Amino acid sequence: KLSMDTRKTTDLILVNQFSSLLKNTRNYKKRLFIIHTLGSHFRYNYRYTQDFEKFTPCIDNNFRLTSVQLSNKIALINSYDNSIFYTDMIVSKFIKELDKNKRKNALVYVSDHGENLFDNDKNYILHGNKIPTKFELHIPLIVWLSTSYKKTYGNKYNTLKTNQTKIFSSANLPYLMWELGNLSIYENNNSRNIGSPNYSEPDTIYTFNEKVYRFPVHQLR
Questions:
Q1: CA dihedral defined by 193, 196, 200, 206, rounded to 10 degrees?
Q2: I want to staple 40 with a disulfide (CB 3.0 to 4.6 A). Which of 83, 100, 157, 208 is the partner?
Q3: Helix (H, G, I), strand (E, B) or coil at 28
Q4: CA distance 185 to 95
Q5: Are 189 and 165 contacting, i.e. CB atoms less than 8 angstroms apart?
């Protein structure tokens, strides 16, 4: 278990645990690992080690929630970017671990939400607005496929490449996972599966107050 409020533990510990799990379960035909990282959760400076302070000035250990003010915008952005820099390293290590065993492996990385960092004239910060901004909604999706996977399921790989510029919703993540796991589900046209030729971009989301909100998709491009 990682602590939310310390620099003593970071997501790197998950990579080490993942490596051990891969070795102990190598005889399984299919395996699914679900890894919940701390990522860039506030406080940002606790998400990376000091050697990843690429962008400065950034917030330090004396920073408090009450310090989240417009006057500290640059330090907040720099610390957030440092946490992204660190997460890039973490994801690359997961990929390297999967690449070692030469099996038909797939990795999917997706964030649950983005973050406001005083980006517009309303000066929103953090996340959780009743009507979310594009900064909260614009999240990354990374899909990595091993060489063996791409050779075996070339059609899936080619379809994902075709759809790689399309808008994706994390609400549709299960459909992608079933596709990558080569599992069959009943779906009339598979329109929610970005791994399908029939994929259709979503234009609605569920907000934090459990409302359905229709969002202009073009604003996320």
A1: 10
A2: 83
A3: coil
A4: 27
A5: no
Residue 96 in tokens: 């390297």
Indicate the DSSP class of residue 133.
-
CB burial class (10 A; 0-12, 13-18, 19+) of residue 220?
A: middle
List C-alpha distances in Å: 23 to 27, 31, 181, 216: 9, 12, 20, 45
Per-residue pLDDT of the chain (221 residues; tens, 9 = 90+): 555 666 668 999 999 899 988 887 767 778 899 999 999 988 899 999 999 999 999 998 888 777 889 999 999 999 999 999 999 999 999 999 999 988 999 999 999 899 999 998 889 999 988 888 889 888 899 999 999 999 999 999 999 999 999 999 888 999 999 999 988 776 666 889 999 999 998 888 777 677 787 777 666 76
Q: Which two tokens stand for residue 83?
A: 């946490």
